[in-house]
# Entry
Amino acid sequence: MSSKKIIGLLGGTFDPIHFGHLRCALELYQAFEMKEMRLIPSHIPPHRQTPKASADHRLQMMLLATQQTPFSVDESEFHRAGPSYSVETILGCRQRFPQEPLCLILGMDAFLKILSWHQWEKLLELSNMIIVPRAGWNAPQSGVLADLLTHHTLAPHEKISDYRAGKIVQQSVTPLGISASFIRSLTAAGQSTRFLLPDPVRRYIRKYSLYSQDSITDPIHQEVVH
# Structure
């Protein structure tokens, strides 16, 4: 589909990172034959509650989760003061990659809220968008967002790798019903999170007693944390 030119940009709080994030990233990386997939943890998310884990803990978990993967962790939002606006992050990426096709990855749920984002009009000036369908969230049939899809959606004969910015494509991935909030609630209840996130991340959560007041013991699979 491409010639290894696309830079994928997948942002989020990653509180914590889990297999839902990683599987989505992998399938898009493969489907679009990306040159690079950058996972971008938000420092101060403007549209969500403050993350439960600190920026440093979330970064360390992401570094553990992405070992031996084709992904890179982009720390740029941690080095900026104030809210972590996507437009500023993409502008920074555009400065580093002036000619490459940039692709901002959004779930359909996030796309439906994009009109509330800071300087949202500039997003398609700076990058393309890959929208991932989500159960329970339908593409708009009227209004500003419907017009965006009408005027910017990639035609069947076009390749997104041929465009630096300005195009939208919808791409399905394997739906995994995993959420960070569910993992946090299981951890707080002392229940196992095995098979929901990478084992190094689970061990890190236990080591630092994240998402709970006390150290959590995994009832299914105990490991010694060094």
